[in-house]
Amino acid sequence: MTWGVWNLLAFVACFGAFTWAMQGGLFRTTDQTSPDLTLIRVLGALSMAAQFLTLLLARQANDLRAAAGFVLYAGALALFAWAARTIWHQRLTLAFADDEPAHLETRGPYQWIRHPFYTAYVLGWLAGVLATGHLALLTTVLVMSALYVRAARQEELKFARSALSGAYTSYRQRTGMFIPNLWPRTGDTR
């Protein structure tokens, strides 16, 4: 098989898992659906279509770049699976839910980053750019990343207003939002 086929398969695996999770396979749903969640779903579907078509039609002139894209897809899927396994018994709600947090997850990838699902999603979007070399796909990365940052900030505000506020403040000091915090704030205990 060519790297193009491998990347198509990796794309389907990643975004199939991501879609399954958002459609109720992993995350708890609340009674209302926010306009922001609808926006993520609509723009996500359009971005997936753009990435899939680009992967399907792209000529694979650079095997190293295509292989690197595949590795990034695999990394995105691995991080997603690790985070999913971590929250399996105590599910989180979907993005932009206005529920009050019931617990603070600090196991698995949450030991290092506060939003591993969003990180996995961004890695998936970046993988398509890397696999194809089509810089126009950076638009999908930027648009979707902006939505994930907005969702993450809203989630962090929920924690700041909840009974878990103190624990979350400490947690924020020792972890990064989307990438590990290599320089925790002074006074942190790990």
Automatic annotation (TrEMBL):
Domain of life: Bacteria
InterPro entries named among the record's database cross-references: Phopholipid_MeTrfase (IPR007318)
Transmembrane segments: 39-58, 70-88, 122-149
Organism placement in taxonomy: Bacteria, Thermotogati, Deinococcota, Deinococci, Deinococcales
Membrane topology: Multi-pass membrane protein
Gene3D superfamilies membership: 1.20.120.1630
GO CC term, one of those recorded: endomembrane system
UniProt name for this protein: Isoprenylcysteine carboxyl methyltransferase
Keywords: Membrane, Transmembrane, Transmembrane helix
Pfam families linked: PEMT
Subcellular location: Endomembrane system
Major localization listed first in the record, in broad terms: membrane
